Automatic annotation (TrEMBL):
It catalyses: (6S)-5,6,7,8-tetrahydrofolate + NADP(+) = 7,8-dihydrofolate + NADPH + H(+). This is Dihydrofolate reductase. PANTHER family: DIHYDROFOLATE REDUCTASE. The keyword Oxidoreductase applies. GO terms for cellular component: cytosol.
Length: 168
């Protein structure tokens, strides 16, 4: 598969690797959302159907690819359907940067292909039913980290980290 795209994963997980509960984020972190919007503004997104349909889902104002086997998935002019990750990447082959937004199985499939990992660590342990896949930290180098203290708007402290895949 040839592509000009750079594939990035963007996610937030708790210290026990939870990324969701009942198809929602288990926290509300306004400054982390602002960071997400800044990083992804004007970029194409790939995500699974459940993530796309979640109540707190994030959609690109530019271009979305939803991974679903449902041929009748409701789409808008900025949304296309792909039956799997490879097809989704192929649909976005002319994009410079593509962000993978989840869920768990999509992250797992995209991880070996990703060049960058925008991973926010929420400094707590929470109950969840969706988890970020196990990472081999030896494959990743931390490039930047911005710590955000708990405050009146943020129930938990968190660190917004950027990792790049190490040269093999």
């Amino acid at each position: 598969m040839t592509t000009n795209s750079h594939l990035y994963i963007i996610a937030a997980m708790s210290e026990n690797q939870v990324i969701g509960l009942d198809n929602r984020l288990p926290w509300h972190l306004p400054d982390e959302w602002a960071h997400f919007r800044k990083v992804t503004d004007g970029k194409a997104f790939i995500q699974g159907r459940k993530s796309f349909e979640a109540a707190d889902a994030l959609h690109s104002s530019y271009k979305n690819v939803v991974l679903s086997r449902n041929q009748n998935l409701e789409k808008s002019e900025k949304t296309e359907r792909a039956s799997d990750l490879n097809e989704g990447i192929a649909l976005l082959k002319d994009e410079n940067e593509v962000f993978v937004l989840g869920g768990a199985s999509v992250f797992e499939q995209a991880l070996p292909l990703a060049e960058k990992l925008y991973l926010t660590i929420v400094h707590t342990t929470v109950e969840g039913d969706a988890y970020f896949p196990k990472l081999d930290w030896d494959e990743w180098e931390l490039i930047s980290s911005e710590f955000h203290q708990r405050d009146e708007r943020h129930k938990y402290a968190f660190s917004m980290n950027l990792y790049v895949r190490k040269e093999s």
